[in-house]
Amino acid sequence: MATEKVGVVGSDRKSDDILAGAFGTPNSAVDIKQAFTGTAAAITTMRKYKFYRFLADQDCHVLFSAAGDATVSNMLIRAGVPEVFNSADNERVSVIRDVTSGNLYVTELQTNPRIV
Prior knowledge:
Elements: H1 13-23, E1 26-36, E2 41-43, E3 51-56, E4 60-65, E5 75-77, E6 83-86, E7 92-97, E8 102-109
Antiparallel strand pairs: 1-8, 2-7, 3-6, 3-8, 4-5, 4-7
């Protein structure tokens, strides 16, 4: 059985094809796995003006900002539902669990030249 790359855990071929058509193909060389608990954790390696796919294995909350930590009042990311976001200059992502600790998988998407 083949091992999946960290950034595509829980994804399926159909959702990858849909995302590729809209935002570009996953760049598996830029995969981030960020564990989250009841204490906010931050991802600081986001590059500006890039699209990223977020996929959590448990419900979590994220905050996009230059500083500050996520709280349970911030945007909810549902477990198993891929979301796509665009990063801005000097932006980092802070993540915290909703109820159960888990992991947030972030994959940079290669820009699709048809929409640039």
